[in-house]
Write a structure and sequence with these properties.
single chain; alpha/beta; seven-stranded mixed β-sheet; 35% helix; 21% strand; globular
């Protein structure tokens, strides 16, 4: 048997390919950023052809740098930025339009109209999601209404829809020459078009958005030995790959991180710190409908098993707030600088920053909100703003933890964390202080790619069971809370006061 498993991780800001051994250690990696296209306020797009080019290069370069070829990989998994919406021509592979990114807010009017009548409650009940700009259904409706010729092509079955996993897999398996048009249950559960119980496209939901069924991909389990086919040997060039590779796993990025953090039992939770923050709580094989502003979503589905569900708290802007300090304000030169700057002051100096650049996601779901920095005085410096930015990441996570407790009755005693922001030790300490529980980071912090690799490896027998995966999980670092209860209470009250100032701007 081959000694390694690979994972394509197609994210919001970059695409990478990672290679793991049997104990979950990284043995190879290549990562490339892609352009963030911002045509107007609230619009965020990506170039699908650039993403596909980056995917090919990342796979080939990672294999080459590790001294491996396709025959060394038992399988690969794919994970991706969810909700981001693409449409392309079945016969040529040419996109009809740029990918509309999950952060994009151009569909606010569509979401508001759905929420103004009984359709909103049907979507909540069947799809587990509130009508919001976040999800794919409204983006697809916008494309069908605004791109000339697209609707007719979609009704003929000549125009295909997918999230980035679908786009990558279709191209990897041949593209116009017989590429597989598929997605998995986790990505499909983020569209507002799939019934959570049947795990299939729902005709009434499709009708709400005017989506022709002919353009939709087949929905498959997240881990399956045969469902996703193999890559075309010529993709990327046989010299760099050395043959075809079996694709056996597909999950949305946050569900992949849940698998990578081995949260396979009800009550286990993880928080991923990336462009946004995404906390998932495994709730078992029955979906729990949230009354506290969370999403009900599919956590994963292994071949031959029922789907596992989760409650999710999705936060739009966390790590990207740090990028904003760097790129728009210029007060730091790199993301790593924020820890040093924030550590220069003992507290936030009364400053609170609510980075509601795309509205507020969980648990508020207020598309009318916009970012605000409050509490400023002449005393404050850029160091206080840096610290307030880190606190904003952590307070938003506190909002979600409280909502999860309200829905499930499960009180966290530790929080498993992963993602790029976990490299910031000060931020993780602030998170422990604000939550009042230990925060724990695994040795392999890039659990999104690892989870996709786990899904693929389980499918082909590279790993025998989820219990075997648990033995791979190793603690790297732990942060314990230092704040008093009084500090925690007063800080959280001031945060809520700051949030109230962001509402009703649009």
């Amino acid at each position: 048997m081959a000694d390694f498993v690979g994972a394509v991780d197609q994210g919001t800001t970059s695409t990478r390919f990672m290679i793991f051994d049997h104990v979950g250690r990284e043995v190879g990696k290549h990562q490339l950023e892609h352009e963030q296209i911002l045509p107007r306020a609230g619009w965020v797009e990506h170039n699908p052809l650039e993403i596909w080019d980056r995917t090919q290069t990342a796979i080939g370069s990672a294999l080459t740098s590790a001294g491996l070829t396709a025959s060394d990989l038992a399988a690969i998994g794919v994970t991706n930025q969810r909700e981001t919406t693409l449409v392309w021509d079945r016969h040529t592979g040419r996109p009809w339009y740029n990918a509309i990114v999950w952060q994009d807010t151009r569909t606010a009017a569509i979401a508001s109209a759905l929420d103004a009548d009984e359709r909103g409650e049907v979507i909540r009940e069947r799809a587990g999601l509130p009508p919001a700009t976040y999800f794919s259904g409204g983006k697809l409706q916008w494309l069908l209404e605004h791109v000339d010729g697209l609707r007719a092509a979609a009704e003929r079955g000549d125009a295909l829809f997918g999230t980035p996993d679908t786009w990558v897999i279709w191209n990897l398996t041949g593209g116009p020459a017989g590429g597989r048009h598929v997605t998995d249950v986790t990505n499909a559960s983020r569209t507002m078009l799939m019934d959570l119980r049947t795990l299939d496209w729902d005709d009434q939901l499709l009708g709400f958005f005017g989506v022709p069924k002919a353009m939709l991909p087949q929905i498959l389990p997240s881990s399956h030995p045969d469902a996703y086919a193999a890559t075309a040997a010529s993709v990327g060039g046989s010299a760099s790959w050395g043959g075809s590779i079996r694709i056996a796993g597909d999950l949305g990025d946050q569900q992949a991180a849940t698998v990578g953090q081995v949260c396979f039992a009800p009550g286990e939770a993880k928080n991923t710190y990336g462009t946004g923050n995404f906390m998932l709580l495994n709730t078992g094989t029955e979906p729990i409908r949230s009354k506290a502003g969370l999403l009900t979503t599919v956590a994963y589905q292994l071949a031959g098993e029922p789907a596992a569900y989760a409650l999710e708290g999705s936060i739009a802007v966390t790590g990207s707030a740090v990028q904003w300090l760097r790129d728009q304000l210029g007060i730091i030169s790199g993301a790593a600088d924020i820890e040093r700057l924030a550590a220069a002051v003992p507290d936030n100096g009364g400053v609170y920053f609510v980075p509601a650049f795309s509205g507020l996601f969980a648990p508020y779901w207020r598309s009318d909100a916009r970012g605000a920095i409050v509490g400023l005085s002449r005393f404050n410096t850029n160091a206080h703003l840096a610290r307030a930015t880190l606190e904003a990441i952590c307070y938003q996570s506190k909002d979600v933890v409280d909502a999860m407790f309200a829905d499930s009755g499960v009180r966290l005693d530790t929080l498993k964390v992963d993602g790029g922001v976990t490299a910031n030790a000060l931020c993780m300490q602030i998170q422990a202080d604000i939550l009042g529980v230990d925060v724990v980071k695994p040795v392999v912090a890039e659990t999104t790619a690892l989870g996709a690799a786990y899904a693929a490896g389980l499918a082909v027998g590279f790993w025998g069971s989820t219990d075997e995966l648990r033995t791979n999980w190793q603690e790297d670092r732990r942060w314990s809370p230092h704040w008093t209860d009084a500090q925690r209470t007063s800080g959280y009250a001031a945060w809520h006061k700051a949030v109230s100032r962001t509402l009703d701007w649009v």
